[in-house]
Amino acid sequence: MTDTELLATVPIRHDRRPPADMVRAAEVFAERMAQRRSVRDFAADPVPDGVIEAAIRAASTAPSGANVQPWRFVVLTDPARKRRLREAAEAEEREFYERRAPQEWLGALSALGTDWHKPFLETAPAVIVVFEVHRGPHSPKPYYVKESVGIAVGLLITALHHAGLVTLTHTPSPMRFLNEVCERPPEERPYVVMPVGYPAPDARVPDLTRKPLEEVMVRW
Ligand SMILES: Cc1cc2nc3c(=O)[nH]c(=O)nc-3n(C[C@H](O)[C@H](O)[C@H](O)COP(=O)(O)O)c2cc1C
């Protein structure tokens, strides 16, 4: 037994819409999302004030295990801080690509043409570093942390795309150096690094295909 009080309840806010409108909205949204791509070449142009904040607010509406909301979003825009991030990330990535990465992993990456150089960490006008927040002096024990933070990051990617920006889910390995660069305590564990901005004018992306619905969906 615990002595926590049951939360009060409020009516759900939900507008029931005509089915045809719903189908149309779902189709339009799917089409819009199909245009999302991971971008690795950024323009230096700044992003409009407030867009990143609103996108992080949207991400923070994600469901989370026991509603602990175990996420932290660190926004880096200071050029000196971004340079430190790039230098630290490239040192780790160089070690990864040249020594630590198993051949099988390098094989999977080779088609994408990625290597240890990460100029986008400096050229992108903003870099959002997302952390999982574990139990600490000021944070309770979270549940389903990876799932919760993953969902929040999915919403963040969607919100940035919806606002007209591009990003990349970048996962340097290992990532502990991010605590120092972002000045975060040890109970916060790096999850992903997301440069955010506009594509460089000559930016190109791999010509990928996505699995068709029949392959990813099962209906009984
Ligand atoms: C969990 C995760 C980690 C990723 N890590 C990296 C990374 O470290 N570097 C990178 O260039 N791309 C990374 N990506 C991006 C994927 O390569 C990219 O999403 C995939 O090739 C599909 O391309 P698209 O995002 O344009 O659809 C990562 C994606 C995910 C979901």
TrEMBL record:
- SUPFAM superfamilies linked to this entry: FMN-dependent nitroreductase-like
Look up keyword GTP-binding and say if it applies.
no
Pfam families in the record: Nitroreductase (PF00881)
UniProt entry tagged with the keyword Oxidoreductase: yes
Q: Which residue ranges does the record assign to the Nitroreductase domain?
A: 34-198
What are the entry keywords? Answer: Flavoprotein, FMN, Oxidoreductase
Which protein are we looking at?
Answer: Nitroreductase family protein
Give the originating organism. Dactylosporangium maewongense
